[in-house]
Amino acid sequence: MEDHIQALSKFVTHFVDQLVYSGVENVVISPGSRSTPLAMTFAEHQNIKHWMNLDERSAAFFALGMAKEQQAPVALVCTSGTAAANYYPAIVEAYYSRIPLIVLTADRPHELREVGAPQAIDQSHMYGKYVKWHHDMALPELSQTGYSRRQAARAVDESLGRHAGPVHVNFPFREPLIPDFNLEGLWRKEEKPIPRAWRGTVCADRSQIQDLYSELGTDRKGLIVCGPQTDEELAEPITELANRLGVPVFADPLSQLRTGKHDKRNIIENYDSLLKSQEVKDRWQPDYIIRFGAMPVSKAYLQWIRQYDHAIDHFIVDEYSSFREPAGITAQFIWSEPKYFCRSLAEYYRQGSVTSNWLTEWKEMNVIAKNQMLLEPDNDLNEGHAVVYLSEAVPDGSILFVGNSMPIRDVDSFFMSTPKQVKIMANRGANGIDGVISSALGAASSGKQVTLLLGDVSFFHDMNGLLLAKQKNLSITIVVINNDGGGIFSYLPQVNHKDHFEEVFGTPLGINLKPAVEMYGGIHHQVTSWNDYKRALEDSYLEQGLSVVEVITSRDDHVGFHKAKWGSIKEEIEQWGGI
C-alpha cells in the first residue's frame, strides 16, 4: 500500500508540475471521487490557479472562454463516467474555433472496465476526431515520473501546435486515491522538467508573393475580407495592405478590425446590409478577394460569392494547412502567417493610400447604409438599436461576448467601427447556443469587464453557468434580448406553417428571469424604454458582480424591422445613382 501511495503521488505531482512548467496557469475542476489525485494535486500546487465548477458542461465552456481570452491552454479535470461526456459540446467548439484545452479525465483501472462497475464507461478516444491528440495513461508506478512528465509536456505542445485545439489525457487510478504530499521526490525535485517545444511559423516564399503580385496587378478591382479571428495585431497589416492596394475591407464583427485605433478608412462594416440587394451584388463584383480568418457571419456575403464564383479569383490565407471554405467555391489556399503575408505583399506596392472609383463607391455606399441603420428608433424596443446603444456604452478596454443565432447577426448589422479597444468574441466554431454564459464568464475570469449579449433561449440554456459569477464574484453585464423564443426561425420558411411553428420552432419560454438572476446573487434590470436601457447599461458597469439587463422585444416585429432597414438602404442607393 505504501508503494502505491508513493507511486501515485509522484506520478501525479510530476504531471501537474510539468503542465505548470509548460505554461498552464489555470485549471477548472469539477468534483468527484476518482479524480481525487488530480484535483488535490492541482489545489496543492502554488503556481496554478484552480477554479471549481460543479457542472461539467459549464466547466468546459468556462475553460474555453478563459483559453479564448488569454490565448493560452487551460486544463480541465473531472471524474469518470458521464461527467466526461458533459465536456463534449465545449470540446467540439474548441476544436472548430482552435482553442487549446487540456482535458484530463479520471477513469477506473482496466480491471473495472466492461464488467458492470459503476461510473465505468469507455473513455478511450471518447471525443473522437474532436481532439488533436489522445493518450490513455499507464497506471502509476514508481519508475514512471519521467513518462508522466513527457505526456504532460506533449499535451501542452499538441494543444498549441499548428492550429491550436483540445487534447485528451485519460487517467486510470486504483484506490486508495489520496496522494501524500509529504513524501520525498515530488514536484520538480526528482525529474528534470521537459523544455517547451519550439514552434516556428509558415511563411510563403518570396517567389510566391511575387507571383501573386503579378496576378493581382495594380488596376484590378480587389476586395479584402476578414472573417472571425482572434489576433488583434492583424488589424494594422491588413489595413495597410488595403491602403496600398486601394481596396475596401469587409470586416466581420469578430475580425477585430471594427474596434481599435488602427486606420479604418477602407473598412466596410455594412456589407451584409448592402448585399441584401441583388442590384448591388450584380453591379459591384470584385475581380479578386483575399480572405483572412474564418467565413464571415454574413449569409448575404456567402450567397454572393457562390453566385459569382467563376467571375472572382479567391485567395484564402491561413497560417497552417486547412480548408475552411464552406461556400464550395474555387479558391487558392495560401498557407502563410497572415501578418507576414500582408507585409510581404505590401512591399510590392508603393507606400501611401491608393484611391479609385471602385473604393470610393464602396465607401460612399457604406456611409449611406450606416446612416440608415443608425436612424433614431421609435419608442418600441428592438434588437438593432439595443446593439447600437450597447456599442456606445460598452467600456473602452473591455470584452463584448456575443451569443449565436440572432445576436451575432444584429452585431454584424448594427455594431459600427469605433476607436475603442473592445475585443469582440463569440463561439463561432460550431455556432451553438449552449454554454455561452459560461464562456463569457471564462473570459471575465481575467478581471476585464465583460458584456454578454444573448437571447432568452441561450440564457435559459446555460443558467447553471451563473453560479460561478456568484461564487467568484466575477463582474459581467449580461444583456438578454427577450423575445420569448427563437427569433431566428422567423426568417425561415417554417414560419409559414402556423399549425406547428410556435411549438416546434418558436419555443416560447414564458418564464420570469428576475428570480433566476437573484438566485445567483445578481442584479436584474428589466427595461421598457430606450432611456431605461441606457441608464441600466450605465448602472451595470458601476455594479460589482452579476448584472442582467433584460430587453423585452417582439418576435412578431423582428423580421419587419430588419426588412424595412434593408429596403430603405436599397432605396437610398438607387437615389444616390449607383444602380
Characterization of this structure:
The protein has 579 residues and is an alpha/beta fold. It has 3 domains: 2-172, Rossmann fold; 206-371, TPP-binding domain (Rossmann fold); 376-565, Thiamin diphosphate (ThDP)-binding fold, Pyr/PP domains (Rossmann fold), CATH 3.40.50. It is 40% helix and 15% strand. The chain contains 22 helices and 18 strands. The protein has helices at residues 2-21, 36-44, 56-70, 82-85, 88-97, 145-160, 206-216, 235-245, 271-274, 278-283, 299-307, 338-346, 357-373, 383-393, 406-414, 436-444, 456-461, 466-472, 498-506, 513-519, 530-540, 555-576, and strands at 26-29, 49-52, 74-78, 101-107, 134-136, 166-172, 222-226, 249-251, 267-268, 288-292, 313-318, 331-335, 399-402, 423-426, 450-455, 476-482, 523-527, 546-552. Strands 2-1-3-4-6-5 form a 6-stranded parallel sheet, sandwiched between helices. Strands 9-8-7-10-11-12 form a 6-stranded parallel sheet. Helix 1 (2-21) packs parallel to helix 6 (145-160), helix 8 (235-245) packs parallel to helix 12 and helix 14 runs parallel beside helix 21. It is globular, with a radius of gyration of 26 Å.
